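Posting here for the record, re: S-adenosylmethionine.
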Amino acid sequence: MTKQLQKLELTWIGKGIEPKIEPRIFIEDTAKSYGQDVTENMLIQGDNLLALKALEQNFTEKIKCIYIDPPYNTGNAFEHYDDGIEHSLWLSLMKPRLEILKNLLRNDGSIWISIDDDESHYLKVMCDEVFGRQNFVSNVIWEKKFSPQNDAKWLSDSHDHILVYAKKKEIWRPYLLPRTEAMDGRYKNLDNDRRGLWTSSDLTVKTYAAANDYPITLPSKRIVYPTKPRCWSVNENKFHELVVDKRIWFGENGDNMPRLKRFLSEVQEGSVSKTIWNRTEVGDNQEAKKEVKVFNEASVFGTPKPERLIEKILFLATRENDIVLDSFLGSGTTAAVTHKMNRRWIGIELGEHASTHCLPRLKKIIEGEDNGGITDEVSWKGGGGFKFYTLAPSLIQKDKYGSEIINPSYNPNMLAAAMAKQEGFRYDPHESSYWKQGFSSDKDFIFTTTQFITVQILDKLAEELKPGESLLVCCKSFAKGCIHRHNNITIKKIPQMLLGRCEFGKDDYSLNIVNLPHEEEKDIEVESVEISEQIKSSKSKKKKNGDDNQPSLFS
Ligand SMILES: C[S@@+](CC[C@H](N)C(=O)[O-])C[C@H]1O[C@@H](n2cnc3c(N)ncnc32)[C@H](O)[C@@H]1O
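Prediction output follows.
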């Protein structure tokens, strides 16, 4: 029997069943958009799988940094979403989202994912598969809590993980962190050196080289050797040059082991980040709660992240004007911090708190009325704006006879925009040519209409096309003679041309795993059904607890 080789990967029930997501259009809710009209910032309320798919056309390889803080699957019911969901389902929900997120990242971009101990190791292995293990950068440990939980049954959990992946690690480099006062405070000028403040470092190294193992006579005349098995970091000639240049420090009495002076004026502009982030440096859960309380005191968001934590990520991963995306926006922290740091942002949030929490927070920031978080540190004074969007309903729905029809709620502009998106054209109606509704290149256009297209109409369009130009006409119906009438015009029927391409009419991607069972896979079927039952029962329990008006996880 030949042994089957399998690749190293994580498997789970439902893996490989990937939904074909409909690329929806966005609808601006002008009553909720705020601030300067000319803005690219987007606050999107809706399911992030559909929203990410909708962003794909315009934002593929445009995003410099993604931060996400997905529900952790801990089984706890938080106030603002239902977090009790089975592990396989959780992985199945995350994977297609991560795949689109990867497409959106620029080649020099990075993704940062907050996750707790329960799910982090599974997520790591799945991310290795999605982003490539060679693109894994670090697992940052964030100290989220200070006080120990003395009632913890086992150990008191005080950290979360932040998994960091680069789109292409060989070209991505983090920026240096700005130097802090504490760092500069370590520099003194004990010998009044004219080059200014300095600190000193050990002159020995671990990697042994015989040429760097020699006796040094201190100013006090004592002779010293490097501590075995180490040696000096420079050879004897270089050492004497450094002494002449007054770059060696032997202590106030000239009797200490030699140390190398490092001048503040000569150190690099910033510092490299470590992988352990303490709460004193980036804040903790308590700080985050205090920050968001002021934006909605009546209903304080349950699981926000502190602004300083996001600030550090953005310092390391972005520069002004870069686009930052958060598809699990929660109370809006990422958008808030990104805005104050003069980067552009896209935030997606499923729950009502897009309106009840993110909206007031961002409005205050634009008005310069938010005095919390990193406002003082970055000297934020207000300004900018954002547009508020929801997702259009599905383009196709079934009528009472079960036939697929164009959704009657689509007006002609929505239909034209949706068809342009479906066909990979940029929707951009021309000022004077009614039929130039969008383009895929400067010579290729799209025209969508609900009109019946006659041969005469088609000939008229052909007359208007310049040499080398081509047109795709999408219409409900057309006369027989239209097909192949003009080489540079393609004519197609909607909705027929779209059927089978993706899942229409589907707004809920939370339970796709439940549809998994096949006849022959009895074991899996039983397990899957159990999972679905667990989910249902966890949801109904929440309903009983009066939790039913909270948005549910991923749905
Ligand atoms: C842990 S919270 C994020 C908190 C956020 N980092 C902050 O600082 O406020 C996770 C958020 O993801 C949202 N969420 C869950 N499933 C979603 C989905 N399918 N689409 C969009 N948002 C979703 C939840 O409503 C919740 O607000």
